[in-house]
Write a structure and sequence with these properties.
The complex is a heterodimer of chains A (about 300) and B (about 675). Chain A is mostly helical and about 300 residues long. Chain A has a domain at about 40-45 and about 100-290: MetI-like fold, CATH 1.10.3720. Chain A is built from 11 helices and no strands. In chain A, helix 3 packs antiparallel against helix 4 (about 120-135), helix 7 (about 185-190) runs antiparallel to helix 8 and helix 9 (about 210-235) packs parallel to helix 10. The longest helix of chain A is centred in the middle third of the chain and has 37 residues, at about 85-120. With about 675 residues, chain B is α/β, with parallel strands linked by helices. The two termini of chain B are about 40 Å apart. Chain B is about 30% helix and about 10% strand. In chain B, helix 19 (about 575-585) packs antiparallel against helix 20 (about 590-605). Chain B has helices at about 5-15, 20-45, 70, 95-100, 120-125, 165-175, 235-245, 280-285, 295-300, 350-360, 375-380, 410-420, 425-430, 465-475, 495-510, 520-530, 535-540, 555-560, 575-585, 590-605, and strands at about 145-150, 200-205, 215-220, 260-265, 270-275, 310-315, 325-330, 340-345, 365, 385-390, 400, 485, 510-515, 540-545, 620-625, 625-630, 655. Chain B has a domain at about 5-140 and about 150-315 and about 630-640: Dipeptide-binding Protein, domain 1. Chain B is built from 20 helices and 17 strands. The chains are: A mainly alpha (about 300), B alpha/beta (about 675). The interface of A and B includes residues 152, 254 and 257 of A.
Chain lengths: ~300, ~675
């Protein structure tokens, strides 16, 4: 009897199938033209920050006062003869440090707040969301200024102030996500088999709201950098001699706008392209992590 | 009836103030005072604008050269009385020419200083780019108009008993007059400052030979015709009560030694001194002491209603604290009705906005922070703009270490820090072409020297000598990496360039300077309250500060350094200093007093209490071409200067057809 061979049904191959989801997301982000361009710009900024100590000392004064861009000083010098390229690179370090730390802090605290508030519901949700409402009612920069003016202006104070600004936005968004997730049957199932609230939150709900958390992080990073620059511009963030972009723009940049325009130009460009790159990257991340929103802009 | 001092009186007066004092003391005090005021102002504005002239390194500046100046006023303008002598015409001064042409020595080891840029010499020579004044065009004044001034700071209270902000002081001279006046106007020569009975409320004065009484004759003048004073005549009791108030007010330090002020009759006032105060006549012309009617104090309205005898009457309808203040012309002014309808101060705190307002004609003058390089662009916007420079005759920024804590209680350590300060480098970076090619001590040199002493003013701590500094630190056992916590007055804008330059010097010496966070207001609170003088509260080993003493010789040689002074911020407790300071206070012999000044300088330098080897920039001030007669700012002369606008306001007018070319040349035309 002849043996009959039955062909296995054809399996449709999906791009990225079998890859780790994170790797897959990264590849999809980088293969997007906007994502690649944004990543490229940010990579330059990050490299500048990493290698800020390699070139000229951003704090070292020199006799080359208010010298325009040249081979020796590609971004020119300020009124104390300090190399502006070195200062812009050092400023990248401050901006990224503040941006990442404030974003991480704000998003984590906000996520925890939203998670607890959304999961607990009842009076706790009611009270905590009114607090969030109150915080959202105050413009972010005003809230940050209020906080910084109470304490001593500086980078650390600025980070805490920006965290305060970010928290309510994240708390509100994550709470919404939690409200949707907690209605799923697997959450009921977990509860039925005796899982406690903490376990349910951490094992069943949190993993399912990671995507909105990441999207929020990528979105607020640019905003955090912009707030830091704004605080520094207003004299409430980093202080001289720290080469914060915002401070460079407001202090020497404004003072010598006519005499030495490069002092305002380069920090301004650095702020603009960095924030733009983060915002565009945030959009791509959102598209990748939340396919429902893809193309919804 | 005015009185002519007798020859004996003149001699007494001469002894009291001294011929040099009259001529230079004002200058001296001025320099210093202005520096202090500027420093205070700069602290507020967070950045740097300043002042400074620059003589050649080996030549004294024309300003201090006792040539034409000395002979033009043989025994000082103070000796003139009812018959004012003509204003001495500033002469080219051989010293000025010499200064301008002398080949300067290299100012430092290869720094691109331009010591040939002689600020004082330039300002006094034809064709100079910037000067203190210019010859007014021969035109008939046109009445009317409002002159606007862009002020960087608000005016606060008008009560000069309790306040003394620099704008408050300046605007107060619009409303009130001082007892003693100084010559003022376009022909004002800052190097020949002179008390002149034409400009103050006293038409003459007599000084007892022992300096224990001064008698003043008052002119006929009426207060503003405003309730509750309603234009009544000034009488001697107004002056007496004014000084009684001042003796218990913020300016009390100026009047140390003054006992009772007595109204002898309606037109005669007498100062009875408890002990001679060698500066007292100079103080009587201080712009911080304009005389207001007693009624405003009795009614408790002195903070809002300055009613004096001056050319401007405050217009409350067009005045808003910290935003705008307007002085309407006083038609009954004793010097003649003002030509302008009004004079208005608009508060424009931002320097760039101020420049924009100037360019567009919204303000005729302001005090922006300018570098010489910016002038061409401004001239492009405002052809015919006039420029004034105000050379500083002393340093304004003082670093001091806490000499009560180790290792800074060791003189060798303090000297090492001072020797490690590279003045030439600071100068080349901070004020190229805009400052002295030498450092300036925090004591104005005109107090104690006829000629600019240059670096010699710092005595043994003058040179930049890092090797010697290293030896001293080694001998004192100071290890590398010793921390110096520094508190600065920069406030929200951070520390200024001076701090960063000094930090580099400290690092070269092996110290690890650490910048403490500072908030401008908190710093000022602690600084004025002597928080930094209290070892328990100080919390830092080094501070950057400025003088808050009166801009007189006593201010700098007593208040700033005496251990018993309430405005000494630097923890100086030195019996030698105290003794010298006390002795100079009442020393009415000019030469003997100058000798004491020099001894004080030597002790201060030898002990290195102040790290005052920081240059001060010449300020650059701009005036729209329409403005005639008045001069703003100019050299910081301390107790009297171009800041006293009230003297000139009644003759000031706005030219409807201004010259298209700048008039900026020197006074000699």
């Amino acid at each position: 009897m002849a043996e009959q061979t039955v062909a296995a049904p054809a399996v449709r191959e999906f791009p990225g199938a079998g890859r780790h989801p994170a790797l897959d997301a990264a590849i999809r982000i980088l293969t997007s033209p906007v994502g690649a361009a944004s990543f490229g710009v940010l990579a330059l900024v990050v490299l500048g920050a990493i290698f800020a100590d390699v070139g000229k000392d951003p704090y070292q004064t020199s006799l080359a006062v208010l010298v325009g861009p040249s081979l020796d000083h590609p971004f020119g010098t300020d009124d104390l003869g300090r190399d502006q390229l070195a200062r812009v690179m050092q400023g990248a370090r401050i901006s990224l440090w503040v941006g990442f730390l404030a974003t991480a802090g704000g998003c984590l605290v906000g996520a925890a707040w939203g998670l607890i508030s959304g999961f607990a519901g009842s009076w706790l949700d009611l009270v905590s969301q009114r607090v969030v409402d109150a915080m959202l009612a105050i413009p972010g920069i005003v809230l940050a200024l209020f906080f910084v003016s109470i304490f001593t202006p500086g980078v650390t104070t600025g980070i805490v102030a920006i965290i305060l600004v970010i928290i309510p936005f994240n708390a509100r968004v994550i709470r919404s996500a939690v409200l949707a997730v907690k209605e799923n049957v697997y959450v009921d199932a977990a509860r039925v088999i005796g899982a406690g609230p903490l376990r349910i939150m951490l094992r069943h709900i949190l993993p399912n709201v990671v995507a909105p958390i990441l999207i929020m992080m990528s979105t607020v990073l640019g905003a955090a950098i912009l707030i830091e620059a704004g605080l520094a511009f207003l004299g409430m963030g980093a202080q001289e001699p720290e080469p914060s972009w915002g401070l460079m723009l407001s202090d020497k940049g404004r003072q010598y706008m006519e005499l030495a325009p490069w002092l305002a130009f380069f920090p301004a460009v650095a702020i603009s392209i960095t924030v733009l790159a983060f915002n565009l990257l945030g959009d791509v991340v959102r598209d990748v992590l939340d396919p429902r929103l893809r193309g919804s802009r | 009836m005015t009185k002519q001092p007798s020859s004996t009186e003149q001699q007494g007066l001469s002894r009291l103030i001294g011929s040099r004092v009259s001529r230079r003391s004002v200058l001296r005090g001025g320099v210093i005072g202005a520096a202090g005021l500027t420093a205070a102002a700069l602290i507020g504005c967070g950045d740097d604008d300043d002042e400074t002239p620059a003589p050649a390194a080996t030549q004294p500046p024309a300003a201090a050269t006792p040539t034409a100046t000395a002979t033009a006023i043989p025994t000082a303008a103070i000796e003139r009385t009812a018959t004012p002598t003509p204003t001495p015409t500033p002469t080219p001064a051989a010293g000025a020419a010499a200064t301008a042409t002398a080949a300067p020595e290299p100012a430092g080891p290869g720094y691109p200083l331009e010591p040939a840029y002689d600020y004082v010499g330039n300002a006094r020579n034809d064709g100079a780019p910037f000067a203190y004044g210019w010859k007014e065009p021969d035109k008939t004044p046109v009445p009317g108009g409002i002159l606007t001034y862009g002020a960087r700071y608000g005016h606060g209270s008008f009560d000069n008993v309790t306040t003394g902000g620099y704008i408050t002081q300046s605007v107060n001279t619009m409303a009130g007059d001082m007892l003693v006046g100084y010559h003022h106007g376009p022909d004002f020569n800052v190097y020949q400052m002179e008390l002149n009975p034409d400009f103050g409320l006293a038409t003459g004065w007599e000084v007892a030979p022992d300096g224990l009484s001064l008698t003043f004759s008052l002119r006929e003048a009426n207060f503003h015709n405003v309730a509750p004073v309603n234009g009544r005549a000034l009488v001697a009791s107004d002056v007496a009560q004014h000084y009684a108030r001042m003796q218990n007010g913020r300016q009390a330090g100026l009047l140390l030694g003054l006992g009772a002020v007595e109204a002898v009759d309606d037109r005669t006032v007498r100062f009875n001194m408890d002990k001679p105060n060698a500066d007292i006549l100079v103080v009587a012309g201080n712009r911080e002491l304009p005389i207001y009617a007693t009624e405003v104090y009795d009614a408790g309205i002195a903070d809002t209603t300055p009613i004096g005898t001056g050319p401007g009457i405050l217009d409350p309808e067009n005045t808003s604290q910290d935003q705008r203040m307007t002085f309407a012309a006083n038609p009954d002014y004793w010097g003649g009705a003002p030509l302008l309808d009004a004079f208005r101060f608009d508060t424009i705190t931002d320097g760039e906005t101020l420049k924009a307002a100037f360019r567009t004609g919204q303000t005729y003058h302001g005090l922006p922070t300018l570098r010489t390089e910016e002038l061409d662009a401004l001239w492009g916007s405002v052809p015919g703009m006039n420029v004034m420079s105000n050379p500083s005759l002393m340093g304004i920024s003082i670093f001091a270490v806490n000499s009560n804590v180790a290792p800074f209680n060791d003189t060798r350590v303090r000297r090492a820090i001072k020797l490690g300060m590279d003045v030439d480098r600071y100068l080349a970076i901070r004020y190229p072409n805009q400052s002295w090619p030498d450092s300036l001590p925090a004591f104005g040199w005109p107090f104690y020297s006829d000629v600019y002493p240059g670096r010699a003013a710092f005595g043994s701590t003058a040179p930049y000598d890092p090797d010697e500094a290293a030896k001293l630190l080694s001998a004192a056992g100071v290890e590398k990496g010793h921390k110096i916590r520094h508190r600065h007055p920069g406030g929200f804008s951070g520390p200024g360039g001076d701090t960063q330059l000094v930090f580099e010097s400290l690092r070269e010496l092996g110290f690890e300077p650490e910048l403490l966070p500072s908030d401008g207001a908190a710093f000022a609170d602690q600084y004025y309250a002597q928080g930094f003088s209290d070892p328990e509260r100080r919390g830092s080993e080094m501070i950057q500060g400025w003088s808050t003493a009166a801009p007189t010789a006593n201010g700098y040689f007593w208040e700033n350094i005496h251990s018993k002074s309430s405005v000494q911020h630097f923890n100086i407790v030195d019996p030698v200093i105290d003794d010298l300071a006390d002795r100079q206070f009442s020393e009415i012999d000019t030469e003997a007093r100058r000798e004491l000044f020099q001894q004080i300088m030597k002790q201060m330098n030898d002990e290195a209490y102040w790290m005052d080897k920081l240059p001060a920039s010449a300020g650059i001030f701009i005036l729209r071409p329409e403005v005639r007669f008045v001069r703003f700012h100019g050299p910081y002369i301390g107790i009297h200067s171009f800041w006293d606008w009230g003297y000139s306001m009644h003759k000031t007018w706005l030219d409807p057809d201004p010259p298209e070319q700048t008039l900026t040349v020197d006074l000699r035309g």
